[in-house]
Specification:
The chain is an all-alpha fold. Helices cover about 45% and strands about 0% of the residues. The chain has a domain of about 30 residues. The chain has 2 helices and no strands. This is CopG family transcriptional regulator.
Length: about 55
């Protein structure tokens, strides 16, 4: 019998971050995500990668 459910990911995400943002910031993030066919999580993760990978 085949396994049922979501396939296991190689990069398991176990940590959860929670932040508070102003309504205007949240709307901007949601609009960007919708316009670029992304999730809010993908937008935030890309932003974090961009900040963390820039030279100091």
């Amino acid at each position: 019998m085949a396994k049922i459910g979501r396939p296991k990911s190689e990069n398991v995400k176990k940590k959860v971050l929670s932040i508070r943002v102003e309504d205007s910031m949240y709307k901007c993030i949601c609009d960007y995500a919708r316009n670029h066919k992304m999730t809010v999580t993908e937008v935030v993760l890309q932003g974090l990668e961009k900040v963390l990978n820039r030279p100091e």
